[in-house]
Specification:
Rossmann fold; 10 helices; 41% helix; elongated; disordered N terminus
Length: 331
């Protein structure tokens, strides 16, 4: 009987084995290289080896923002596994507090960690100098780190927005996509064309810029026709839309036109050679808001005009009158 397995009363073998097993959660958005997935894995592996842990699960969010849990399938799956009781580990190894998330409400970050704790799974921040042991000092350190992570995102958002406004004021295109009859051309620092950007494509180098370019001559003719029908023929949005679709002219998405697309064309300053940025904004994933006219950023001489400025000005006056009529009708 010398080799017999002796189990002491009250010993939970499954629990004993589980305490040597851990999962790792890694996340990277578009931040500094030191936060790369590979670097996080290396730091977590070193921590696991030092503490006698075996990493048995990996939950990963590659190229995902840490502002919220939405859009982070890795973290969502992790929380679901923990809450369902399917987790075969009792520790989650994370590089640091910011990789868990840069939640703008620090209570949200604490909430997801609390869900794990309530289900017997502890979150460990491997690169932090404090131990996540539930002590007063640990709680204070986490609170400060969560606030710093959130503030980093807020400061970065302000800096990025300021940079975008400056670039837009120089006549470059900021954002995507563009309207009907327009194209995005990537240029280098010397304004030399590097290629046309298709839908879903973005420039790779920070020093590159995006200029607007005309589409086909046929598209330019359609744009002028829309303005002519609206300003001179005084046709309604529905009449213009119907004429375009009857002529089998597709919109910029290759689909039939709708009434709502017509005023969008008529109000687009790109067609008189200008760019306009910051009409709307969405800060840190909040709701999209319309900005007042004084906050708009105009870039002149960004592209050769397609429509005569006088025709465009007359169209804006008619658009304003149409909006007033619509409001009266609704009232």
């Amino acid at each position: 009987m010398a080799n017999a397995l002796v189990v002491r009363k009250g010993t939970n073998l499954a629990r004993r084995l589980r305490t040597q097993r851990a999962a790792q959660y890694v996340r990277m958005s578009r931040e500094l290289q030191r936060y790369s997935i590979e670097n996080q894995r290396a730091a977590i592996a070193a921590y696991a080896a030092t503490n006698g842990l075996t990493v048995v699960r990996t939950y990963e969010d590659q190229g995902r923002s840490g502002l919220r849990i939405k859009g982070r399938p890795g973290l969502i799956e992790l929380i679901e596994d923990v809450q369902s009781g399917q987790a075969d580990f009792d520790q989650i190894l994370v590089y640091d507090v910011s990789r868990w998330g840069r939640f703008q409400d620090t209570d949200e970050s604490a909430y997801y960690e609390f869900l794990c704790k309530m289900n017997g799974v502890r979150v460990v921040y491997c690169a932090e100098i404090f131990k996540n042991d539930g002590s007063f000092l640990s709680g204070m350190a986490k609170y400060m780190k969560r606030g710093m992570a959130a503030e980093w995102s807020r400061e970065l958002g302000v800096k990025v927005h300021t940079g975008h406004c400056r670039i837009a004021s120089l006549g470059y295109r900021v954002g995507a996509p563009v309207g009907y009859g327009l194209r995005r051309m990537m240029v280098d620092e010397g304004e030399h064309p590097k290629g046309q950007l298709e839908r879903g494509q973005y420039k790779a180098l920070q020093s590159d810029r995006v200029r607007l370019r005309h589409g086909s001559a046929e598209e330019a003719a359609v744009i002028r026709c829309i303005f002519d029908q609206f300003v001179n023929a005084r046709q309604s949005y529905s009449e213009i839309r119907r004429a375009l679709n009857d002529a089998n002219i597709a919109n910029h998405n290759g689909r039939p036109w709708t009434d709502g697309m017509i005023p969008t064309i008529l109000g687009n300053e790109n067609y008189i050679g200008k760019t306009v940025y910051n009409r709307t904004s969405r800060r840190l994933g909040e709701r999209l808001v319309k900005n007042p006219a004084h906050a708009w950023v105009h870039g002149a001489a960004a592209i050769e005009p397609i429509v005569d400025p006088d025709i465009f000005a007359r169209a804006q006056k008619l658009l304003a009158e149409r909006r007033v009529e619509i409001r009266k009708t609704r009232c």
